[in-house]
Amino acid sequence: MSTEQTRVAVIGGGAAGLTAALFLARAGLQVELYDQDRSILKRARLLNLPGHDELEGRELLDQLRGKIDALEVATHEGKVDDVSVEDGGFRVHSAHGGDTSVSYVVLATGQGTLRLASLPVETTEARQPFVKVNVVTDRWGATSVPGVYACGVVAGWPSQAVVCAGSGANVAIEIASHATGSFWVDHDDTRLAADPE
Ligand SMILES: Cc1cc2nc3c(=O)[nH]c(=O)nc-3n(C[C@H](O)[C@H](O)[C@H](O)COP(=O)(O)OP(=O)(O)OC[C@H]3O[C@@H](n4cnc5c(N)ncnc54)[C@H](O)[C@@H]3O)c2cc1C
Question: pLDDT by residue (tens digit) across 44-83?
């Protein structure tokens, strides 16, 4: 299967999910982003984001949305109600976005309760305050269900925008590496070519 035919559902459009969607789309995968628009970033003023003196969380969300829109990521505003395992992949059920078949699922649902009754991912008690549950993952974000990954606060990462964004990039790199068959690196080759050092 080519990368353009590999469909990935990203559930959650906060720091982690939008960054995962960006990296996946840049790798040439077909991304279906589902989001209820309840990111806690909307309440944050970021004074600790590399590359910025200060940035409103809403601005970060807008910047990331702009980038994924330019890459024609399919976005579905609304809740994912469930994810079921089907032959060779998964079926995402959403009253807002309809039902979609995908090869991979990225859980980036933040600090709330994970209510996906048909998806048997292993979970554990969260260490952080305000966080309801953590999905158990390995260092690449892989969960107990092959093909399902988790990033951001729901995966137990500290609730900091840069950390959660980085964990989204991390799972995207892992999925892109699986889909392309070699380790995926998203670098700007043009400048490397111009500088032999
Ligand atoms: C008041 C406040 C101040 C903060 N200040 C800072 C700061 O100064 N610096 C810093 O680094 N961090 C700060 N943070 C933390 C930062 O906002 C979080 O670490 C970051 O947003 C977590 O990213 P995430 O993607 O894991 O979750 P979120 O950004 O919360 O995104 C989760 C998304 O998943 C969606 N979702 C959940 N379930 C479903 C479903 N079933 N279907 C569809 N969508 C779903 C939600 O609607 C939401 O949009 C602050 C947070 C708060 C609340």
Answer: 999 999 999 999 999 999 999 999 999 999 999 999 999 9
What is the CB neighbour count within 10 angstroms for residue 76?
19
* Residue 58 CB-half CA count within 13 A: 2
**Ligand 1 in contact with 77 (CB < 6 A)?**
no
The count of domains in the chain is 1
Provide the mean pLDDT of the chain.
Answer: 94
User: Does ligand 1 come within 6 angstroms of the Cβ of 139?
Assistant: no
C-alpha span between 71 and 74 (Å, rounded): 9
Query: Which of 159, 162, 163, 171 is the pocket-test mutation for ligand 1 (most atoms within 8 Å of CB)?
Result: 159
Q: Which domain holds residue 29?
A: 3-194
Q: Is the CB of 41 under 6 A from ligand 1?
A: yes
Given the CA of residue 45, which atom of ligand 1 is nearest to it? 8
Q: Is any atom of ligand 1 closer than 6 Å to the C-beta of 16?
A: yes
Residue 34 CA to chain centroid, in angstroms? 10
Report yes or no: 151 and 170 within 8 Å, Cβ to Cβ. Answer: yes
Beta-bridge mates of residue 149: 106, 142
Q: Is the CB of 129 under 6 A from ligand 1?
A: no
Q: Which two tokens stand for residue 66?
A: 């702009």
* pLDDT tens sequence across 118-153: 999 999 999 999 999 999 999 999 999 999 999 999
pTM as predicted: 0.96
